[in-house]
Amino acid sequence: MEDRSESIQVRCDKLPGPVIPRTRLQVSFVRICFSILVWTFLIQIVAFGKLWHPHFISNIANRISQVTGIPLSLHVDESIQSTPFLPARNYSSNGYLRVSCNGGLNQMRAAICDMVTVARLLNLTLVVPELDKASFWADPSNFDDVFNVSHFIESLRDEVHIIRRLPKKFNRKHGFTQFAMPPVSWSNEKYYLTQILPLFKKHKVLHFNKTDARLANNGIPLYLQKLRCRVNFQALKFSPQIETLGYKLIRLLQEKGPIVVLHLRYEMDMLAFSGCTHGCTKEEADELKRMRYAFPWWREKEISSEKRRSQGLCPLTPEETALTLQAMGFNKETQIYIAAGEVYGSERRLAALREAFPLIVKKETLLSPKELHLFRNHSSQMAALDFMVSIASNTFIPTYDGNMARLVEGHRRYLGFKRTITLDRKKLVELLDMHQNGTLPWDAFAAAVRSAHEQRQGQPMQRRVNPDKPKEEHYFYANPHECFCEGTNCNGSLSHSNSSKVL
């Protein structure tokens, strides 16, 4: 029996069967595992680098993108949300701070940063800010329509206790009357500690009904300046619906090449407010004047347009902008994204700019009406899309130094001093007039324009300080250099080693 079984076993071993390519399967499996490990490592580097230093992550993400062709820079901000939040800060609250922000998106954004900082200084409980619904734009958006409210609350819990709404006992329905006031503009921490804090002990709830520029640029303790930075660059994430569409917009643009964002502030409200009518017809100038008189809070009514223009206080016209960009070396192959509302004069005024730069696009031309439907008639949400593209662009050029221009400039500095060309409008007006009246040939004009802007491209620089005239200081949010330094000493944050290169 044993011999027979052995012979059967031998015959079975010799039966033919499929040959499994084990070596090839093993190699493929190892390659897949290795790829997963490499990408996991890169993602961890991106997430860790963002927390460690913005310049570090910008360089790493850009180099990875160059090798792989994948625009990792689009997802840098998204990596923050995977970071565990710090434990809540324990403190005895001195009262509730309710704030109503006024102005457009970027004016309100800066105000939110200021009000979080004030709440931290005074140990207050902050109610989620209310956004302006009564301004010129009449935008009905709430905070959570524009910003990610959960992220805002949780990401700052180690600094400030933030609640979505006041406790019911402080509502008018329960007979409670809130004390409302606008804090004094450009105030430092002494004002808030000596003038405002005692009011909370008396009233428990304070409503700041105006919040624009209510905190000084300078003279603020470093920990408060850094908190402003943290709110601006980390806590204020846009709402999921804005981010989703914004990242799609950026991807569509990046697929076509480098992006130049032109913040063409040639809009009806800006021209009416500033009194700038250069290039307008008489009928248009009269229309702008009537609009200026229609809004009582626009205090200045009689304005000399030419005088303002000669002082560099007017936004460049589309025609002036076209000549300026050509002088700087941009050509017909330059992809230009216009980040602005409706240009006054519409396509008639854009003709010269389109002729010089045929690759002009806007969000309305890149996205379908269906995609933009939810954002229509919501100026803050539309501006948020432009803000995202402006931050991600290769070059940002504002034609006027309004709130958006300044906040984008500061954000791009924070992300590694990305190229931002701040136009010297006073010098440009002089050069443009000389060129157009025939006294300055094109080559000389172009050389003069380039020379005037060599040191106006977003390089690191110390913020200008003028304690007696804080409105004339360089705006904190345009150049928040305290955000760039590590530790508790910022004196060396703008050293030669990091101040000479323009990205």
Explained architecture:
There is one protein chain. The protein has 503 residues and is mainly α. It has two domains: 96-235; 240-484, no CATH class. It has 20 helices and nine strands. The protein has helices spanning 2-13, 22-52, 54-68, 105-122, 143-146, 149-155, 189-203, 222-235, 240-254, 268-274, 282-294, 305-310, 318-327, 346-356, 363-366, 369-372, 379-392, 403-414, 425-436, 442-452; strands at 96-99, 125-127, 161-163, 179-181, 205-208, 260-263, 336-338, 360-361, 395-398. The strands form two sheets. The protein has a five-stranded parallel β-sheet, with helices on one face. A four-stranded parallel β-sheet has the order 8-7-6-9. α10 crosses α11.
Low-confidence stretches are 1-21, 44-82, 495-503
Classify the secondary structure makeup into a structural class: mainly alpha
**Strand residue content:** 5-15%
Q: What proportion of the residues is helical, as a percent range? A: 40-55%
Order of helices and strands: HHHEHEHHEEHEHHEHHHHEHEHHHEHHH
Query: How many alpha or pi helices?
Result: 20
| Main beta sheet | 5 strands, parallel
Count of spatially separate domains: 2
Biggest sheet strand order reads: 3-2-1-5-4
What value does the Rg take, in angstroms?
A: 28 Å
Our measurement of the CA-to-CA distance between the termini, rounded to an integer number of angstroms, reads 86 Å
Mean of residue pLDDT values: 85
Q: What does the overall shape look like?
A: globular
Beta strand count: 9
